Amino acid sequence: MKNRRFFQEKMADHLSLYHKEKREFSLLVMDIDHFKRINDTYGHPIGDLVLGNLAGLLQSISRDIDVVARYGGEEFVIILANCGEKQAISIAERYRAQVASADWGEYQITVSIGAATISTVDADLSLFQKADDSLYASKTAGRNRVTHAAHLIEH
After folding, report:
1. Is-contact 70 1, C-beta < 8 A?
2. Among residues 42, 51, 151, 154, which one has the fewest Cβ atoms lying within 10 Å of its Cβ?
3. How far is CA 97 from CA 102, 122, 145, in A?
4. Which CATH superfamily is domain 4-151 in?
5. Is the pTM of this model over 0.85?
């Protein structure tokens, strides 16, 4: 599983390609719902196993051109190359559904996902912030769901 540094390098590459060639891409930020409960109930070794198994599942269902990385804690990030808003939502829903229906043994996990699609006003931090804000909206709305930044109400 790729790490945060690898993700940041690839994010910079995608931003550069977007500004030079207008190659659209989207970003997913994903978090395991109630992960602390897994660690508290089953212990950290099981929590680590869940993280490893989730990483493997995400990698197995991602496209070759996408970047899947662990961002930190129970948070994962996925750069969806050549992907606009509608496709990003569709792919995020596929990830969410596959995680929810996977066999995790005696425990069940779900993920909340925030998505954002690059626009002319975005830099890497603003795109990440939009996806992260969308993740927070998914969690606030009840978890186990996908929210795209384009659907957030601006204040």
Report:
1. yes
2. 154
3. 8, 29, 9
4. Reverse transcriptase/Diguanylate cyclase domain (3.30.70.270)
5. yes
Q: At 151, is the secondary structure helix, strand, or coil?
A: helix
Domain boundaries, the chain: 4-151
Q: Which residues of 25-58 are buried (b: 16+ CB within 10 A; e: fewer)?
A: bbbbbbbbbbbeebbeeeeeeebeebbeebbebb
The model's pLDDT over 55-87, given as tens digits with 9 standing for 90+, comes to 999 999 999 999 999 999 899 999 999 999 999
Residue matched to tokens 């996806």 = 131
Provide the total of helices (H) and of strands (E) in the chain, helices listed first.
Answer: 5, 5
Pick from 126, 119, 104: nearest CA to 41: 104
Q: Which residues are catalytic?
A: 74
> Sign of dihedral through CA atoms 101, 133, 1, 123?
positive
Return left, alpha or beta for 135; rule: phi > 0 is left, psi -120 to 50 is alpha, else beta.
alpha
